């Protein structure tokens, strides 16, 4: 799916800044896509964009209202409906990454049909994907993988794409989750694709390209997560990655949501990801490690990364504290 730009970010009645993290992510990584924000009276979040009415946003060129807030249960609140209808009537599409579907709300469906507008439930794919063929594709690809879920794969991927573009490299972020789709405006939510077609879906969103073009593909899950290893495997095979970046959060006591499963040893994790990646790209290799050090004091974080870098012989960085320039340097050297 591909969303029309630019966006009006809907913050609704967000209880706090964390509840509007999707909107904040879009504003951080794609500020050029955002004309403003719409907040209800009891909203306690602010992305730092101009507050706009629906009519003001349309006058400013907004083509899609993006629901950038998540409430408990991921539902579309009754208090939002009037605003969403107003947006449709004013000529905007609506996009949402919530569990609750826009297309399950009769009022919105009827209004969208009447106005000729589109409703995008980005969590749920709308096209049929082929079975993967594993054939070599032109162009270059980088995939982020993780020791666990929610360790910074999306953030790292976006940071790498930005660093590449800042250097004048030809690069595109390829989203594989709902938040990434809302940030980039296109992609596929891999965890909602039928398992037989995950690799084919990734082949579809990262097609053949020019030899010097890089697709930076957002990773999902972990090969070592008992719940989500399946989607990770399909994504790795479909990516045909030339370069892999491992993402890790060192203060985790166990796999996310699975207290009985310890985090894998980093060497073991890298070996497993390489073995999986080399089914469809025998030349796949790791080019760096991204560490989420938010749970460590700065000196402890720097010491940990320095020790790990000496152990692995690869650049080890925190993309938030230090940026990802040293990882991208590896890609330039290997070009």
UniProtKB/TrEMBL annotation:
Coiled coil: none annotated. NCBIfam families: DgcN. PANTHER family: DUF1611 DOMAIN-CONTAINING PROTEIN, GLL3100 PROTEIN. Residues 131-328 form the D-glutamate N-acetyltransferase-like C-terminal domain. Signal peptide: none annotated. This is EBNA-1 nuclear protein. Pfam families: DUF1611, DUF1611_N. Residues 45-125 form the D-glutamate N-acetyltransferase-like N-terminal domain.
């Amino acid at each position: 799916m591909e969303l029309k730009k630019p966006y009006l970010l809907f913050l609704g009645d967000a209880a706090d800044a964390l509840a509007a993290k999707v909107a904040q992510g879009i504003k951080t990584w794609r500020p050029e896509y955002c004309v403003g924000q719409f907040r209800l009276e009891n909203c306690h979040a602010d992305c730092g964009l101009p507050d706009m009415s629906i009519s003001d946003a349309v006058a400013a060129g907004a083509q899609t209202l993006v629901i950038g807030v998540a409430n408990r249960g991921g539902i579309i609140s009754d208090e939002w409906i009037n605003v969403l209808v107003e947006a449709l009537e004013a000529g905007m599409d609506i996009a949402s990454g919530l569990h609750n579907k826009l297309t399950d709300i009769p009022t919105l469906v009827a209004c969208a049909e009447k106005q000729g507008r589109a409703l995008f439930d980005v969590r749920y794919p709308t096209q049929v994907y082929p079975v993967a063929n594993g054939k070599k594709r032109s162009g270059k690809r980088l995939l982020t993988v993780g020791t666990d879920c929610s360790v910074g794969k999306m953030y790292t991927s976006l940071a790498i794409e930005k660093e590449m573009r800042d250097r004048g490299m030809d690069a595109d972020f390829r989203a594989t989750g709902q938040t990434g789709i809302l940030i980039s405006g296109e992609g596929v939510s891999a965890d909602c694709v039928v398992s037989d077609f995950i690799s084919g879906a990734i082949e579809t969103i990262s097609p053949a390209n020019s030899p010097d073009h890089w697709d930076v593909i957002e990773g999902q899950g972990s090969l070592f997560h008992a719940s989500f290893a399946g989607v990770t495997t399909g994504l790795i095979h479909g990516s045909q990655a030339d370069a892999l970046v491992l993402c890790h959060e060192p203060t985790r006591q166990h796999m996310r949501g699975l207290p009985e499963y310890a985090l894998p040893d980093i060497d073991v994790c890298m070996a497993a990801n390489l073995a999986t990646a080399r089914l469809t790209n025998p030349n796949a290799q790791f080019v760096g490690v991204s560490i989420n050090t938010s749970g460590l004091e700065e000196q402890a974080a720097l010491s940990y990364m320095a020790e790990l870098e000496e152990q692995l012989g690869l650049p080890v960085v925190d993309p938030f504290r230090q940026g990802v320039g040293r990882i991208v340097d590896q890609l330039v050297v290997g070009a």
